[in-house]
Q: What sequence folds into this?
């Protein structure tokens, strides 16, 4: 329609965002570290330089609530003191400045594909506790037509 901006035109702001995202993806490599502390149900601290990691697609209830405290304990059982592999997704959490990543418990005898995917394990744990339906890709949700 005349008078409307072209949909394929990139604004300077959008160009900057795309370039930033491309730069992040260019650096994406599997990294390693040992979990030094569990800060909450979805955030951990690595020993190497105090790096904070936040699990991608895991939304933990607040600490001080029964489910939030239980999730933190379960997270501790999964990762505390263990060697981890993590794959940053190129984003940083707005509030905690933690790197958002997919996290795996490293097993030297097996590849990444056979390692425990912590993000998925925590999502399933949460879904079982709050009795939420789970999509096929493992993300808890209640608007999936297949589970209604």
A:
């Amino acid at each position: 329609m005349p008078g409307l901006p072209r949909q394929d035109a990139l604004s300077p702001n959008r160009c900057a965002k795309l370039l930033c995202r491309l730069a992040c993806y260019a650096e994406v490599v599997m990294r390693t570290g040992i979990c030094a502390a569990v800060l909450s149900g979805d955030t951990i601290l690595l020993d190497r330089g105090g790096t904070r990691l936040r699990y991608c697609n895991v939304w933990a209830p607040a600490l001080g609530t029964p489910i939030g405290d239980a999730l933190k304990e379960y997270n501790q059982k999964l990762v505390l003191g263990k060697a981890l592999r993590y794959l940053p997704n190129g984003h940083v959490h707005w509030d905690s400045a933690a790197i958002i990543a997919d996290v795996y418990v490293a097993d030297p005898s097996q590849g990444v594909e056979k390692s425990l995917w912590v993000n998925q394990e925590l999502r399933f744990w949460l879904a079982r506790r709050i009795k939420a339906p789970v999509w096929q890709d493992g993300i808890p949700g209640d608007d999936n037509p297949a589970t209604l």
